[in-house]
Amino acid sequence: MSKMTLKTEGDRHVVVTRRFDAAPESVYRAHTEPALIQKWLLGPDGWTMPVCINEARPGGKIRYEWTNGEGAGFHVTGEYVELVPFSRLVHVERMHMPDATPDNHVETTFAPDGTGTLMTMRMTLPDAATRAAMLSTGMEHGMEASYVRLETTLNP
Amino acid sequence: MPNLDASFSALADPTRRAILARLALGEATVMELAAPFDMTQPAVSRHLKVLEGAGLITRRIEGTKRPCRLAPAAVNEIDQWLGMLRKALSANYDRLDGVLAAMKTSE
Q1: Which of A12, A48, A120, A153 has the lowest tally of Cβ within 10 angstroms?
Q2: How confident is the model at residue B26 (pLDDT cuts 50, 70, 90)?
Q3: Is the ipTM of this complex over 0.95?
Q4: How far is B7 from A59, CA to CA, in rounded Å?
């Protein structure tokens, strides 16, 4: 299994990389076709994405709604800026918690890497404070489950 | 050693977590903290009192200001958040591996 990297860069960026054992076309499709996205873009166990709109064209809308099936949920909306099949996606997105967070500008590239694909996702936030807030709210999603574990083990 | 219960309830609030994340970038005054969070200074001060009581931040006196900075306990917390985010994203991409394998099989 290949390892994901996640790091902050400068004041306003977050960069994630991950290698996949599939051609760029497949990885690109898994990022743009709702039926495929709903299978993996889910976060912690128990969460599902009942609503997935992904209009893969410039100006096309993005809307993802997640729920844990127990009343908790949130959604993301966004718009595509630029698409280069099957190598590059540029979009803006914001989380609704329920108030909208400032726009996160995301560039995702899919580069051939041997028989697989190297994905690089580069997020750009308006400023350092927004990035800090995003990192902490984005983490909330993963934190709910983690906090439950923390209560019992104190060692998540 | 900060009180674990106090630390736990201090971190249960998303605004306080965001304030800590902001302080991870460096020392800040109440005024600097209030601006990006769209909050009044008294509201921020209340959150800071909770964080200070939980041992997650320290404050020093500089004239009329009391700038805040992260205490070592909070640095550890923030490392854990990054770890949690990494974990949530990793889980997604591990699932995506499965989706890609299934796509390959169905071709």
Answers
A1: A153
A2: confident
A3: no
A4: 44
Which residues of chain A neighbour B88 with C-beta distances below 8 Å? 43-44, 139, 141-142
What three-state secondary structure class fits B28? strand
Distance CA B28, CA B19 (A): 10
Among B22, B85, B90, the residue with its CB nearest the CB of A139 is B85
With CB atoms and an 8 Å threshold, state whether B100 touches A43.
no
Task: Identify the segments of chain A with pLDDT beneath 70.
Answer: 1-2, 97-98, 129, 132-156
> In the 3-class helix/strand/coil scheme, how is chain A assigned residue by residue?
CCCCEEEEECCCEEEEEEEECCCHHHHHHHHHCHHHHHHHCCCCCCCEEEEEEECCCCCCEEEEEEECCCCCEEEEEEEEEEEECCCEEEEEEEEECCCECCCEEEEEEEEEECCEEEEEEEEECCCHHHHHHHHHHHHHHHHHHHHHHHHHHCCC
C-alpha A41/C-alpha A23 separation (Å) is: 19
For residue B61, the distance in angstroms to the closest alpha carbon of chain A comes to 23
Taking the Cβ of residue A1 and every Cβ of chain B, the question of whether any pair is shorter than 8 Å is answered with yes
Average pLDDT over residues B60-75: 85
CA B32 from chain center: how many Å? Answer: 16
Question: How does pLDDT run across A7-22, given as a tens digit for each residue?
Answer: 878 778 889 899 999 9
